[in-house]
Amino acid sequence: MKILKLLFVNAAVLMLSATMVAQPKPWVVPANFTSMKNPVAKGDASTKAGLALYTKNCASCHGKAGLGDGVKARTLKDSPGDFSKADFQKQSDGDLFYKTKSGRSEMPKYDGKLTDDDMWNIVNYMRTFKK
């Protein structure tokens, strides 16, 4: 009986720990970015440029299809997320631009590494992951 109680307590602690780790902190985006319009027109040229930039800078963590399953994903403390899900896709272009530009925690900051147009092309490409 004691073994069953011990197993139950251990399972409960593990489940609680997994739940606590899985909850990402909200990423607050300043209002001026949320309302920002994407100045780069969506289309084949932007999607192609975004694909090349995404493959080089993002896919190792976020995965080729944006599912959060890149080769580096398993080494991260936080999940890189799934770009195909509705909660990701409902964000504004400005939200995605801000997050790419500023980074946080394990997500690198691309301000100064990529041009603004490059980041907007990546945003346009990330929109292709919508299911």
| Extended strand count | 0
CATH class: Mainly Alpha
What's the order of the H and E elements? HHHHHHH
What structural class results from the helix and strand content? Answer: mainly alpha
Biggest sheet features: none
* Separation of the first and last Cα atoms: 49 Å
- Outline, from the CA principal axes? globular
Strand content: under 5%
Structurally, how many domains make up the residues?
Answer: 1
CATH topology tier name: Cytochrome Bc1 Complex, Chain D, domain 2
Please report the number of helical segments: 7
Report mean pLDDT, rounded to a whole number: 88
Gyration radius (Cα, Å) is 18 Å
Helix % is 40-55%
Tell me the name of the CATH homologous superfamily.
Answer: Cytochrome c-like domain
- Low-confidence segments: 16-21
Looking at the overall shape, the CATH architecture is Orthogonal Bundle
Please provide a written account of the structure.
- This protein has 131 residues and is an all-alpha fold.
- It has a single domain, classed as Cytochrome c-like domain (Cytochrome Bc1 Complex, Chain D, domain 2, Orthogonal Bundle).
- 52% of the residues lie in helices and 0% in strands.
- The chain contains seven helices and no strands.
- The chain has helices spanning 2-22, 31-34, 44-57, 59-62, 86-89, 93-102, 116-126.
- Helix 6 (93-102) packs across helix 7.
- The termini are far apart.
